[in-house]
Amino acid sequence: MGNSLKIEEFFLNYKKNTLFIITDKNIYEIYENYLKERFKEFKFHLIVIEPGEQSKTLTVYEKTINELMKKEMKKTDLIIAFGGGVVGDLAGFIAGTIFRGVRFVNIPTTLLSMCDSSIGGKTGIDLTYGKNLLGVYKQPEFVLIDTRYLETLKREEYESAMAEVIKVGLIKSKELIDYLLEEKIDNLKMIQMAVKIKKEIVEEDPYEENKRMLLNFGHTFGHAIESYHNYEIKHGYSVAKGMDLAIKYGIKINKTNKEVEVVLNKLYKKFKLEKFTGDSNKYLSKIKYDKKNKDDDLNFVVIAELGRAKIIKIKEEDLNDLSS
Question: Do 245 and 323 meet the contact criterion of CB atoms below 8 Å apart?
Answer without folding.
Answer: yes
